Amino acid sequence: MILSAGDLRPEYLSFLVDMLNKRCYYVRGNHDIVYDVEPPLGCVDIDGKVVNHKGIRILGLGGSMWYGGRGVEHTEWQMRWKVWKVRFQIWRKRGVDIVLTHAPPKGIHDGKDLCHTGFRSFLKLIEKYKPRYLIHGHVHKSYGYSEEKITQVRETKVVNVQGKHILEIRPRVRKKITKKEGWWNIVFKLRQDSLKSFYAESRGRKYLDSIDRGMQTVEVDNIVGSVGRPLDFSRNFSLKGVYKKPHIRSRVKSIEEAMQEGRSLPAVELYKMDDEYYVLDGHHRVIAAKGQGQKFIDAHIVEYLPLGDDSRRLTIQKRIEFEDETGLGGINLLRQGDYDKLLFQIRNHKNRIEARTKEKISIKQAARDWFSSFYRPVTDKIKKLKLRQYFPKATIGDMYVYLCYQARLRSQRRLEHTCSLPEALEEIGILAKATQIILSGEGLKERIMKIFRP
User: Fold this and answer.
1) CA–CA separation, 158 and 315 (whole Å)
2) Closest-CA residue to 131 (of 153, 164, 106)
3) Backbone angles phi, psi at 110, to 5 degrees
4) Which residue blocks in 119-172 are alpha helix, DSSP H?
5) Which of 181, 198, 333, 337 is most buried by a 10 A CB count?
6) Distance between CA 78 and CA 453 in Å, rounded?
7) C-alpha distances in angstroms, 287 versus 56, 243, 409, 418?
């Protein structure tokens, strides 16, 4: 394929077509007024058109800046109008790969005299449509202008082909969508790889009422969705097409550097439903936190509550009261009365600590010690044994309360709600074994014999 950026004799272009037997596309330069009466034979004028040559889409825009009207010249406004008129052709071709012009863009390879000044319209064209190449002529090295031949502008290479220049360019490969893999499947896969949408989840669950929870520290792994931007990020909070968004990449990098240097950053804004968080503001800070392996992040929380389901709403409100009193977060229970049981444990733990140390402590201090001494070791064991696969509707907190109840029944101190850690861990092992036996594929007789066998 031959591309002519203008200011060439028509008989020369006709000679190239005859000798090389290749298709030639051209735009006129400011000196090509002779083309009106003697156009080059076998060549295609693409001024103001978008053509497709073997999968490569080419847009032509001829002429230079207006400097008296003696040749093929345009004002800035006239060139802007030409660019605006081809927008529908670009849309139909689904973009453009090469923009063939005579004059350069403003400020790139152009000169200071009016004739060789570039067009601002070309800069906006590059910014909006992101062609792979903008090829121009007009600016001659022998005239004392810029010797630079290729300049990268965003995703576009601006090439001055004055004289000659050989380019190797391949058409973009487009995946063919079969009948089996239709457009709906493509859209479904796009959504499947994206973050959870807060608006879709809240409408589906009917969580429409909200309460401001103030500043809290939350686990980064519990941030699973976005408010308004779910399709911009993948499931693991990585950017989609990050190579196309260098400014976002640099923004995330600057935040990571601030985290490494220990500089304070503003808290992120999160919406909460149950034990899931959705980012309202601070997507880049969450990306940086996950990239740095950060476990927790400070956030301002607005929690959403269900409408209509009074029992579920009362349970959530009970959890909120429990979190406000103890300072503990992330303990989710299905029954509101179980929060009173946990609070009873924490108060007993507080009394034991005060009796041992002869010092008064707050309920929040006792809650933190209880969490690290009792709750977390037991729940870590539950996760390690993967018991939730047998009870998909129960939470980790529900299983902890159940084990405490079993440990209390087996204890001689029946009136206490405290949980002996060794007994609780032993109960976990018994429960895991019994559950595996009950859910096994063996017959009833064999299962009963295994349960009662020493």
Assistant:
1) 63
2) 153
3) -90, 175
4) 120-129
5) 198
6) 94
7) 37, 16, 47, 41
Residues in the chain: 454
Tokens standing for 397?
Answer: 């907190």
Give the CATH number of domain 2-160; options: 3.30.420.40, 3.40.190.10, 1.10.101.10, 3.60.21.10. Answer: 3.60.21.10
Amino acid at 209: D
CATH topology of domain 192-308: 3.90.1530
| Main-chain dihedrals φ then ψ at residue 238, nearest 5 degrees | -100, 150
Residues with Cβ within 8 Å of 57's Cβ and at least 6 positions away in sequence, in order, are 50, 51, 93, 94, 95, 96, 97, 98
Q: In whole angstroms, give the CA distance from residue 117 to residue 126.
A: 17
pLDDT tens profile 8-38: 888 888 888 877 878 899 999 888 888 888 8
Measured at the CA of 59, the angle between CA 55 and CA 64, to 5 degrees, comes to 155
Could you give the CA distance from residue 450 to residue 452 in angstroms, rounded to a whole number?
A: 6
Distance set, CA 353 to CA 38, 80, 322, 367 (Å): 102, 78, 20, 11
Q: Average the pLDDT over 293-318 and give the result.
A: 82
Helix (H, G, I), strand (E, B) or coil at 295: coil
Whole-angstrom distance, CA of residue 446 vs CA of residue 436: 13
Q: How far apart are CA 319 and CA 322, in angstroms?
A: 5
Spatial distance between the Cα atoms of 145 and 203, rounded to a whole number of angstroms: 62
- Can you give the residue ranges of every domain in the chain? 2-160, 192-308, 324-454
Which is nearest to 6 in space by CA: 98, 114, 99, 137? 137
- Please list, in sequence order, all residues whose beta carbon lies within 8 angstroms of the beta carbon of residue 84, skipping any fewer than 6 positions away: none
Beta strand 50-53 pairing with 56-61 = antiparallel
Report the alpha-carbon distance of residue 397 to residue 409 in Å, rounded: 19
The H or E element spanning position 224 is strand 223-226
Dump the DSSP string for 245-256: -HHHHHHHHHHH
Structure tokens at 323: 């979190």
Residue 155 main-chain phi, psi, to 5 deg: -95, 5
What whole-number distance in Å separates Cα of residue 62 and Cα of residue 197?
47
Which residue intervals of 157-229 are DSSP H helices?
183-192, 198-205
Q: What is the dihedral of CA 355, 361, 367, 373, to 10 degrees?
A: -50
pTM of this structure? 0.46
Dump pLDDT digits (tens) for 93-151.
888 999 999 888 988 888 888 888 889 999 999 988 889 899 988 887 655 555 678 88
